[in-house]
Fold this sequence. Notes:
It is a single chain. A hairpin with a 2-residue loop joins β4 and β5 (167-172). This protein has 20 helices and 13 strands. It is globular. By secondary structure, the protein is of the alpha/beta class. The chain has helices spanning 16-22, 24-32, 37-41, 49-53, 56-61, 67-71, 97-107, 117-128, 147-157, 184-207, 237-245, 261-274, 296-301, 344-351, 353-358, 376-379, 387-401, 410-417, 436-444, 481-511, and strands at 4-14, 94-95, 113-115, 160-164, 167-172, 217-220, 251-254, 280-285, 310-319, 327-335, 368-370, 450-458, 468-476. 50% of the residues are buried. The strands form three sheets. A six-stranded mixed β-sheet has the order 2-1-9-8-6-7, with helices on both faces. Strands 10-13-12-11 form a four-stranded mixed β-sheet, sandwiched between helices.
Amino acid sequence: MYSVLKGASYILAHTPDMVIHNGTTQTTQRTIDPDSEYLKNLDKSLRSYDECKAYLPNQTYIGNITPDELAGYAQPWYQQKSDYIQREGRFGEIMPEDEFIGLIAICDVFDLVKLESQFAVSVKKKLESHSLIDPKFLSVFDKNFELSEINGFISDEHAEPLYYGGMIVGCIKAAHDIDHSLSAHVIFENLVSKASCVLSLLHLIDKNHIRKEDIEYVIECSEEACGDMNQRGGGNFAKAAAEIAGLVNATGSDVRGFCAGPTHALIHAAAMVKAGTFKHVIVAAGGSTAKLGMNGKDHVGKGIPILEDCVAGFAILVSANDGVSPEINTDIVGRHTVGTGSSPQNVISSLTASALEKAGLKLTDIDKYTVEMQNPDITKPAGAGNVPEANYKMIGALAAMRKEIEKSQLADFVSEHGMVGWAPTQGHIPSGVPYLGFARQELMDKKINRVMVIGKGSLFLGRMTNLFDGVSFILQQNSGAGQEETVSEDKIRKLIAASLKDFAKHLQEDEG
């Protein structure tokens, strides 16, 4: 009885002011050369909210365009006109920056976010009409401040400014005077991650018609860390986000693995549910402000708009087998082990062919591989190439080495088993999970049979090991086992009821 993929949600928050003031490429440049031409001209390369909504990869991320449909448009996609301009999609939404700042304030439970009076009134009015925001949280906007007070917090207490439209509209105060782990900057990053996670949870619940009280466990798998000076990454983002989302019966914990974190977390969730420990587990993550405008210098230098202008998030529901939803086959799990090595061939083989071979499957038996689904509009101008395509070529080359395809069929393999990338370049966000919403529907519609979800991570970034990392698992059509068990249980209940009724009848006859 495998656990199943019950639903998925994906959100974006358009945050151009955070690109300028919080992305590490920009903050580093401001430290090195505050008068650089790059910083002077940066605002001219920022997109409007409407332009962000009309961007084809963004509409794909929230589910209004399928990956196959996106592939039909010529690249680069930022040059293409689009008829898709919706704020909401089948999986989530693209939220404007002012409302997202309001959501950050809602997610602050330690009174650290201070908003300017007029801005607070404006945001409250907008969020009042948001169908997913609980009205009980809107009172946070009634306690607001004059701009002079906010400027005082920034200058005297080193609070982190909040900008909208180039103007200061609030700030986030430090949670401790000397603890760097609770500095205003770290609190800001963590609240952004929490807020984008909360929005993802709300959309998952809403769009999949889930009862909040049914969720028993949440696993958060972003690349941020919350704690204080005594435990810098102690957590717990999962429970913090669940609290705001109203998941009253849920507990949870955080899983970290750089870009591979979401795949690790999904395997954890699938195992928990399969073991019967919990029936409904959510794997979720918010986004990262540090990576906003990460490739901005390359983009601006080549006359390309800043495309990394959104904080992203996602949430995935893993549940007990319902006989319908795609199954997470935890019997076929690829692992990059300590002894695997770091050569590209060893890495991709350990995550794909080695796991499949044990199950008697070939690389060609997987209909779709979902890898690092990074948007090539972002990575190609920065010199990183087309990341998904490179992964698919490596898998195809491995298939050719194993005599599963001819070398001449490599391009066909990439086309058949791969996809174009569309996800924001925020580490864990593009790693395997962006396709799961589409994959669920395609598997249920019997268009495909198997999907391999691959997460890879660069552990050496933490300077604790030079090792690479990665895990993978199979998502497959439901075998109907869950449905059979439900019917069987129902029959058993009826048999028991009938037996009890007969027993009671016999007792009455004996007494008579």
